[in-house]
Amino acid sequence: MTSRYAIRDVRAVLPDRVVDAATIVVEDGLIASVQSRGAAPPDAFDGRGAFCFPGLVDTHSDGLEKELRPRPGVELPTDFAMRSFESRVRAAGVTTLYHGVGFENGEKYQRSVNMANSLCDAIERRAGAPGALIDHRILYRLDARDRDGLEALTARLPERLDDGANALVSFEDHTPGQGQFADRAAFEVSIAGSRGVSDDVARKIVDELIVEREQMAANRGLALPWLTGEAASGTIRLMAHDLVSADDVDEAVSWNAAIAEFPTTVDAARRARECGLRTVCGAPNVVRGQSHSGNVRATELIALGLCDGLASDYLPSTLVGAVAVLVATGVCDVPRAVALVTSGPAGTVGLTDRGRLTPGHRGDLIAVAIEGSWPTVRAVWRPDDGDPTGERN
Q1: Residue 211, Cβ neighbours under 10 Å: how many?
Q2: Using an 8 Å Cβ cutoff, are 137 and 99 in contact?
């Protein structure tokens, strides 16, 4: 690929408007111009009237874990899973992705600190490879009550990422009866469905898990001083996960948290906004129209202006799907919907060089056709590509 390329006949989605019949020119990896009916070079890609967005930015994806273990008892080679998942992500229009890596030893999600280190190694290898299809980054997920996870993360965590950005850390407590599963009944339903057991067995599993987690409660106090200090120094950018109440938000502020990730109630999201925290909601919640665990609908928070960006959580294709749903249902217009999966999440994690279709920003671009209520990603372009996907005239 040359250092200069162009795309013609697209509906370019700028931060505040849509420019029809646009020509976009990228030079030396950066957007040089966006012009309505602008002159296009002979070798320009033909967008065929599709929308053109900045490449999507995903701040939380657990998809690599699922790619690694696609079904019970099956584990694929880590580097193969990385390549396979990377292709899925690229096809969904995501050009920057933070892989969620859980630092914990726990049967619930089949995670271990050895697995965490192996995944981080694979992500770092692929991130540095010339043929990488997306910008791979890491979201370090720390279980609040797992001492092994804390020790592994403090041994692993770099002071800063290669480009000078803060390391992104999510502090999470998935003990039944709080956070995501504040209603333990919803967790019992989840256990029964995912493990194929009866309601009585699921209830017993949750009882045992609560006892086990309570025995680990002291470890939370060991993690907080380290997290609070690192967040204050700017070494990490701290996410507080699954906040339920205004009091939860106030506690997170005392940790120097900068981000409220997946708040479960309107009260928590509103308090986060009052305290200056950035708020992340789930794109699957938008596409489905509800939370899978009975919490607040993401569309409600978006309509109230209490969401800064969406994350795919467990399904990358829901980011572009959420754009289509938000526009079709009238929750927001196209520029605002696109911002929730581009400039919004980029700003949340401190990436100021991408997420906007304006001169000077990275030339990560996608062409999206929206037919009815659903989208199709038609093409993806990145300056780092050796051979970009897309259609020439």
Answers
A1: 9
A2: yes
Residues in contact with 56: Cβ distance below 8 Å, sequence separation at least 6, in sequence order:
92, 93, 94, 95, 96, 319, 320, 341, 342, 366
Could you say which residues of the chain have pLDDT below 50? 1, 159-164, 387-393
- DSSP letters, 310-375, are EE-BT-TTHHHHHHHHHHHTTSS-HHHHHHTTTHHHHHHTT-TTSS--STTSB--EEEEEEETTEE
Rounded-to-integer distance, Cα 94 and Cα 135, Å: 9
The token duo for 350 is 């401190």
For the range 368-376, what are the long-range contacts, defined as Cβ-Cβ under 8 Å and sequence gap of 24 or more? Answer: 368/50, 368/51, 368/52, 368/53, 368/93, 368/320, 368/323, 369/50, 369/51, 370/51, 370/323, 370/324, 370/327, 372/328, 373/324, 373/325, 373/328, 374/321, 374/324, 375/320, 375/321, 375/323, 375/324
Q: Which two tokens stand for residue 226?
A: 């380290």
CA atoms within 13 A on the CB side of 215: 6
Structural domains in the chain, CATH included, are 56-354 (3.20.20.140)
At residue 255, the pLDDT reads 95
- Under 8 Å between Cβ of 334 and 328: no
